[in-house]
Design a protein that fits this description.
The complex is a heterodimer. Chain A is an alpha+beta fold. Chain A has one domain: Beta Barrel (OB fold (Dihydrolipoamide Acetyltransferase, E2P)). Helices cover about 25% and strands about 30% of the residues of chain A. Chain A contains three helices and seven strands; from the N terminus they run αβαββββββα. A five-stranded mixed barrel of chain A has the order 2-3-4-6-5. The longest helix of chain A is centred in the first third of the chain and has 21 residues. Chain B has 20 helices and 24 strands. In chain B, strands 6, 7, 8, 9, 10 and 11 form a six-stranded antiparallel beta sheet that branches. In chain B, strands 15, 16, 17, 18, 19 and 20 form a six-stranded antiparallel beta sheet that branches. In chain B, strands 4, 5, 12, 13 and 24 form a five-stranded antiparallel beta sheet that branches. The radius of gyration of chain B is 32 Å and the shape is globular. Chains A and B meet through helix 1, strand 1, strand 5 and helix 3 of A and helix 14, strand 3, helix 16, strand 11 and strand 24 of B. Strand 1 of chain A pairs antiparallel with strand 3 of chain B, so a sheet runs across the interface. Chain B: Keywords: Cytochrome c-type biogenesis, Membrane, Transmembrane, Transmembrane helix.
Chain lengths: ~140, ~800
């Protein structure tokens, strides 16, 4: 066997080992209910913003505290606390992907990229609005 | 029904050209295929002539499609969905093209356009490789043409028709207004939705064309590789195709880095790279392309590594297609900040990948044994040995990135859906080691000779750059202030090691140009590109590990949770006019202004002063309102460049809309020296000045302006000055309100009453304190990254010219 083949095998084996070990550090997608059961563990939740509850953000007092409520398709709700500025267009998001952990009753997000908004299109100003406006005419 | 005022001809023409391009590319594929398979020269020639003709027709058709779209958009024909959804009357001329490639179907058109241009060059230059290479090129165009066809086949939509009318779209068919024949006269149809404010940016004009030229060009090395396998002329194409591989790596690399610069310059992502799935999707094919570029060079020099060259060049193009699928299928929607949304073409996009992937790998595997290879193994002191291992590492790193980027695809078949935890660190923790290895290999491999170097020769030349690199990087490590301990000591050590590797690359390659090439710059393209790459690594390592949040909120109101890992406190609130401590600066928010009435953009003036050196500068981050009067907006950063660092800021929050302030101006008439009371004190009218010309106002005697000079005395005996102005312009009164923020007080000069008294408007409101919340970051040594990028691109271009000369010389020798 050639030296180069041995090196190839070693490198590939090492990559697979790295891959497998890093796969273990992945988080799982959870519902609000199952995230509660995994309290204290980092998870990802896809949910909607619960518009019946207020979005709390007062940059004059504290620009690093945002809280709002989410509800998922199973009908569960939870309070979310995000320790960064309010993402622009938060209210417009159809769906929202959250990475963080349940601490008691509150879903805490401590990384900036812990909120990802799903807008109709990131680069379009909601064409659905315009379309609705047309449909109502 | 007969609709009024519609212009149907351009759309019909455009759609005809789209279908023509589909048909012509199909004919071109068949003709070039026949030309490749034909045995007799006459037969080959006649098929090739037909292939060329069909290809020319295709090119003409593709350009006609583009011009038709441009015509529709520039003539404001809003009955067409493309114009209605992507443009508006207010759109400036330079963004007409930008709105073409903002759309999914438009970006496919751009891709096709570049393939056309590259095909025209190949017809002139590819010589005996024309037929097989152009078969692949035409097939690519055929596939892309289906993406903009927009026809229905057995109930399935194929492609998005860019010439569809608004009333023919899915929602248009449901909207009742389209049952009126004169629907075009209603206001909503008089103007389009416009280009997103974020995209009205010069980067949007230049970045997509370059990136798509990069994407389009990846098909050329792929086509040559397929041609080699197909014609069983396994090694005959590698010299001729090397400039194409370099070109592709160069342009795709440029496109990626332009995107990176755009993100840094103009968007508030807070950096130049975020390991976003869409960014990864463009990086991964580039890494594999660079791996293939190196093995191709090895093969040309030594005859080794031909099989891996095939593998890399085929795989990079398959990855380009796979990336297209990832970013356009909507599958990344929940995980990326800038993927396209699902447009119902997923099956078609997946097929696009498979029609290339399956036959290409099948051909590769079937012919694998026939691909010539050298049985004798590479010596460990040969250049090709280490270059190959470097390429392999690049490939493995690409594989790692694409596997983690593909988690949403993997989730499709998994019971338990998974996601990355710390998205950035997922990639950084492995790429840092890749950087160390690649950096060190890039530094010393060129000092080795092909086929073996001999004992002692290497160290004789290498000791000097090694020593210099050690000294320089140690100095940077000690005095550079790199103490990034967020992920522990191990990762910090890796950063310092990578810093050495990067410096080593720069020093060793610079020295190699001097010693190894004796200063022959024409042949030094590779080394120059390596220097650029090394500098990029240095810039990335320093700017990322020393990136600092200056707006760390030490004066935060809530301190319930002071653990910085839990609550990073990255934003700081500045009240207008109040000097606030921000790390080593005093920051003052001075006010905001838009350039003109119609402008969508409001600029915020922030003054920074160094606490120690009195060094000062001003930054103007802005908020761009969303188009079409929708609520909200998007922040755009501003930065101050020092030679060794950037101070970078953007607005993270503004007070609720100004208009929501419901308090009223209460009128009160005063004579000179009279007093008026407000809840916290009283106001004295000191004097009235005609046409004031002072620090604040600059009226001339020709104006009609009056200023009330007021003194505000608060209950705690503080005194404030205020000077509201009234002036007449175009027979209309205009007011310049003055405010006393400390008292939450706004004052207006309403009018002069009939009995020669001054009427003031007095408004008290708790919501008045104007403030902004800011994020301010410091990126040290970011310039090294941009300089490195430019040097790397220059190196690619030099190398491209050099290899083209070599390929030509080789041909004339034959």
């Amino acid at each position: 066997m050639k030296k180069i083949h041995i090196i190839i095998l070693i490198l590939i084996a090492a990559s697979i080992a790295v891959l497998v070990s890093f796969m273990g550090s992945l988080t799982t997608f959870e519902t609000i209910a199952s995230a509660r059961q995994k309290s204290g563990k980092n998870v990802t939740i896809i949910a909607h913003i619960d518009k019946s509850q207020p979005i709390e953000y007062d940059p004059a007092k504290d620009p690093n505290y945002l809280s709002f409520h989410i509800s998922d398709t199973l009908g569960n709700t939870a309070k979310v606390v995000y320790h960064f500025e309010k993402p622009y267009d938060l209210e417009k998001a159809e769906r929202i992907t959250l990475k963080g952990k349940m601490e008691g009753d509150v879903f805490e997000i401590t990384r900036k990229d812990g909120i990802l908004l799903k807008c109709p299109s990131k680069y379009k100003d909601d064409p659905n609005n315009a379309k609705q406006a047309l449909s109502q005419n | 029904m007969q609709y009024l005022g519609e212009h149907l001809l351009p759309g019909r023409l455009g759609h005809f050209f789209a279908l023509l391009s589909f048909a012509a590319s199909f004919v071109a594929v068949i003709a070039y295929f026949k030309a490749t398979q034909a045995k007799l020269p006459e037969e080959q020639n006649s098929w090739r002539r037909m292939g060329r003709t069909a290809f020319y027709i295709d090119v003409a058709a593709v350009f006609a499609v583009l011009f038709t779209i441009l015509y529709i958009v520039s003539s404001r024909l809003f009955e067409y969905n493309f114009a209605w959804e992507h443009s508006s009357k207010a759109l400036k001329f330079q963004y007409l093209l930008a709105c073409v490639w903002e759309a999914q179907e438009g970006s496919f058109l751009l891709w096709n356009l570049w393939v056309c241009v590259l095909g025209l060059i190949l017809i002139r230059k590819a010589d005996k490789w024309e037929s097989p290479v152009m078969t692949v090129m035409s097939f690519t165009q055929f596939c892309i043409a289906t993406m903009i066809m927009g026809i229905y086949l057995f109930g399935n939509k194929i492609g998005l028709n860019p010439f569809i009318l608004v009333r023919q779209t899915e929602f248009g068919m449901r909207a009742p207004i389209f049952s009126q024949p004169d629907y075009l006269s209603i206001p909503q149809m008089q103007d389009g939705q416009g280009l997103n404010a974020l995209l009205q940016n010069y980067w949007m004009v230049i970045h997509p064309p370059v990136l798509f030229l990069g994407y389009s060009s990846t098909v050329v090395p792929f086509a040559y590789a397929i041609a080699g396998l197909w014609k069983r002329d396994f090694g005959g194409w590698t010299r001729a195709a090397l400039p194409w591989t370099i070109f592709s790596a160069c342009v795709l690399g440029t496109g990626i880095m332009m995107g990176s610069a755009w993100a840094y310059e103009a968007l508030s992502f807070g950096g130049y790279w975020g390991w976003d799935p869409v960014e990864n999707a463009s990086l991964v094919p580039w890494l594999v392309m660079v791996a293939g570029l190196h093995t191709q060079v090895i093969y040309n020099a030594t005859g080794h590594s031909l099989r891996s060259t095939y593998f890399f060049l085929i795989t990079q193009f398959v990855l380009v297609l796979y990336s297209t699928f990832l970013t356009r299928s909507g599958i990344l929607g929940d995980l990326s900040v800038h993927a396209f949304v699902d447009s119902g073409m997923n099956v078609q996009l997946a097929s696009f990948v498979l029609v290339f992937l399956l036959p290409a790998y099948a051909l590769f595997i079937a012919r694998y044994k026939q691909i010539p290879h050298i049985v004798k193994e590479e010596a460990t002191d040969s250049r090709e040995f280490w270059m190959f291992i470097g390429s392999l590492i690049l490939f493995l790193s690409a594989a790692y990135i694409i596997i983690f980027t593909s988690l949403p695809v993997i989730n499709l078949v998994r019971e338990k859906k998974v996601n990355t935890d710390d998205a950035l660190f997922t990639y950084n923790r492995i790429e840092i080691f890749i950087a160390i290895l690649i950096g060190i290999f890039t530094a010393f491999a060129q000092y080795l000779k092909y086929k073996g170097t001999g004992k002692g020769v290497l160290m004789k030349k290498l000791w000097l750059p090694t020593a210099v690199a050690l000294v320089v990087s140690t100095l940077v490590s000690i005095f550079g202030g790199i103490h990034y301990d967020k992920y522990g000591a191990g990762f910090l050590a890796a950063i310092h090691l990578a810093l050495f590797a990067a410096v080593y690359t720069v020093v060793a390659n610079a020295e190699y140009i001097r010693v190894g090439l004796k200063g022959n710059l024409r042949a030094a393209g590779g080394s120059v590109a390596h220097i650029g790459f090394g500098l990029m690594l240095v810039g990335i390592l320093i700017s990322s590990s020393r990136k600092q949040v200056l707006s760390y909120n030490t004066a935060g109101v809530t301190f319930s949770n002071p653990d910085p890992k839990q609550d990073p406190l990255e934003n700081l609130t500045l009240v207008k006019g109040v000097r606030t401590e921000m790390n080593k600066y005093w920051a003052t928010y001075l006010g905001n202004d838009s350039l003109d009435e119609r402008s969508q953009t409001r600029y915020f003036h922030i003054h920074f002063q160094d606490k120690q050196t009195a060094d000062q500068f001003d930054l103007y981050p802005n908020m761009m309102k969303n188009t079409k009067g929708q609520e909200g907006g998007s922040p755009n950063p501003d930065k101050f460049h020092y030679w060794n660092r950037d101070i970078f800021t953007y607005i993270s929050a503004l007070p609720p809309d100004d208009n929501q302030d419901t308090a009223q101006f209460l009128p009160q008439a005063l004579k000179l020296k009279d007093t008026a009371f407000y809840s916290k004190g009283y106001i004295i009218l000191d004097s009235v000045v005609k046409d004031p010309n002072n620090d604040k106002y600059h009226f001339s005697p020709n104006d009609t302006a009056l200023m009330a000079s007021l003194t505000v005395v608060s209950r705690d005996s503080m005194r404030y000055k205020a000077s509201p102005v009234i002036f007449i312009k175009d027979n209309q009164p205009h007011f310049l309100t003055d405010t006393v923020f400390a008292q939450d007080l706004a004052l207006r000069f309403n009018k002069i009453t009939t009995d020669q008294r001054i009427e003031l408007g007095i408004k008290e409101s708790s919501e008045m304190v104007p403030f902004i919340a800011l994020k301010v970051l410091e990126f040290p040594q970011i310039n090294i990254l941009w300089i490195g990028t430019i040097i790397m691109i220059t190196g690619f271009v030099m190398s491209l010219l050099w290899r083209r000369r070599q390929a030509k010389a080789k041909m004339s020798v034959r």
